[in-house]
User: Fold this.
Amino acid sequence: AKKPGPGGERERDAPTADTDLPTRLAWYASEAFGDVTALFRKRGSFDASSSASSEEAGPASFAEAVDRLREDYDRAYFVTGQMDIPLYQEDCEFADPFVSFRGVSRFKKNLDNLGSFMRDVRLTVTAFDASEVDGVVQTKWSFRCELGLPWRPSLSASGGTKHVFNAQNRMVEHVESWDIDPAVALKQLVRPGKRQKKTGGS
Assistant:
């Protein structure tokens, strides 16, 4: 395993161990693609404020943390990148069916880069359950969008996210689970969208 970089962030962690090779390669390709496209676009006006230092005021209570997390969901944070940075521990662990790594800055970078390609985003939160005793918020959601690529693929999925908070009310784990197989989700990325099919068939 690679040692954490400055601030506890791992520069490049491998995808989860049970992820097959094609899926791992696709995940790395998508992250690299996002890095390249970041060189050719300007950051939005919200980005500067949402990239606030983790040393700024974090939540004073679990209730405040829950309220601030709700606001992140209202902004569709994991699509737009518009997230409350001080809500997260700097070395927060992020995991999904593709990858697991530590570091809120890397998570934010990925959202900024890849989120810029998402169009017609529809995010519906179907459950939002908070337990102060456990320091956990469990959500359920469904998601659909069109990607701004030449073949206009559509991506849709449903799942949930487990948010774990420490005694200082900062998030230390952000674990996504999807209700579809990761390989199925990746196939959506190479399938022409309905709009593209209509254009191509006309």
